[in-house]
Design brief:
The structure is a homodimer.
Chain A lengths: L13 E6 L4 H14 L3 E5 L6 H4 L6 H6 L1 E3 L2 H5 L4 E5 L11 E3 H12 L8 E5 L8 H4 L4 E4 L15 H13 L15 H17 L2 H4 L6 H9 L5 H19 L2
Parallel strand pairs in A: 1-2, 1-6, 2-3, 4-6, 4-7, 5-7
Helix pairs in contact in A: 1-7, 8-10, 8-11
Chain lengths: ~250, ~250
């Protein structure tokens, strides 16, 4: 019987982000699955006080919950990550991202976490129990992952229980499999991409693009556009320079 | 993205057996995971009324729960199965069985379910939330499976939440992987093995073996002995004949 502790995935480089999770039992179950499989980095995104006390009753998961932190915004929760992966039930909404099944996505996540010099950090996002991740929240993601499920006639599209979905995803990442190959894609911190996004939006407003093309100016739409650029760190710096220059030119008296 | 419905595992040939599960929420969570992954055969072993009404509130899982049945004994719940797999947390007790990790056990389960002429049926057993499967319950198993977990210093040995453990096991069975090879091992119904076991125990009592070798006559010990025989159906018939003959000889006036 293999021992999980010897698995090559560096589990400190994967962050689980729960966005608008409501049920303390679910939060506790997520923490317990993380504890069982050796993960420690849990972030909660909620704009109201999270009932963490109730969740802390989860058996054995107290260490994970005590180390967890609450962020006000998703951008804050994924800052520092070089790959942001959203989980979604297929068919829930219009998908404008690369959508991979769990077992297709696992190698990409493992590769990112295996990046040399500890530069790769992955955020794995789970939406609220009722609605999943919103379009705006999905726009922060570099790729989307779905757990393939059985379809049942006459029933609404299936979605998994939150604690079970997290357990299944984490297991797929640490189950024995082919060797992990570090990625060669250039790393860029999600916070850097968000800065490009913010500055681009400022430009779109300053140039009255948003006024004239309202339909195409939805912030989530623009953020997806930026994420599709697959920006490396250097390119992000170049783009920030270009956008600042544009703003300077426009705002000149 | 692959569709789970096309997975080659015949999910009607896997039975999930919950032994002494107490918490209706857990039973509901198990049913929901089965529903999500396309499994339908759920048996509960309890010697008291199961709070199924409460469990039936589980979203989307009502079809699985409605089709589920309650057995008084484990032998009854696994009758008809040709491979009985127990799940256990390592270190909980003395293991006298073949113990495989989840990903090692999955091919064995898939092979059994792929047996030609639909002869292969697998029972996957999960024990109670607090104590897992007892030694007596483990003695009904042909092999044991454990989900490898992280060890944490100073904490008791980890065990997973029941709903999460079932979800992770079922996912491992239907995730895309190497092709499934039907087993060539001879199939024997668990009920047949139980008949050999019962008759052997009768012989041990009739011959006063149990009286003279009390320490070695624990029923679970004897059942494990019988399971280690890896009886094919024909051999089981032969053994039943031998044991009946012995009893006849002993009881002759």
């Amino acid at each position: 019987v293999e021992v999980i502790s010897s698995h090559p995935l560096d589990r400190s480089r994967l962050r689980v982000v729960l966005v608008r999770a409501r049920n303390p039992n679910n939060i506790g179950a997520v923490a317990r699955a993380m504890h069982d499989f050796g993960f420690t980095d849990l972030r909660l995104v909620n704009d109201y006080p999270v009932p963490l006390e109730a969740a802390r009753s989860a058996i054995d998961a107290s260490a994970v919950l005590q180390a967890s932190s609450v962020a006000q915004t998703l951008a804050e929760a994924v800052a520092g990550c070089t790959l942001v992966v959203g989980t979604t039930a297929v068919g829930e909404r219009d998908i404008q991202h690369t959508l991979l099944s769990l077992s297709e996505a696992a190698p990409a996540i493992q590769s990112e976490a295996a990046r040399p010099d500890s530069q790769g950090r992955v955020a794995l996002l789970f939406g609220s129990e009722k609605t999943g991740l919103s379009n705006d929240e999905l726009s922060h993601c570099d790729l989307l992952l779905t757990i393939p499920m059985a379809r049942h006639e006459g029933l609404r599209h299936p979605s998994m229980n939150l604690g079970q979905a997290v357990a299944v995803c984490l297991w797929e990442l640490i189950r024995p499999g082919p060797p992990i190959e570090p990625t060669t894609r250039q790393p860029t911190d999600a916070a850097e991409i968000e800065r490009v996004n913010d500055l681009l939006y400022e430009v779109l407003e300053a140039t009255e693009y948003t006024r004239r093309h309202g339909a195409r100016s939805d912030p989530a739409e623009i953020r997806r556009l930026v994420h599709r650029m697959s920006l490396g760190t250097l390119d992000a710096q170049v783009w920030l320079g270009i956008l600042r220059q544009i703003l300077w030119k426009i705002r000149r008296p």
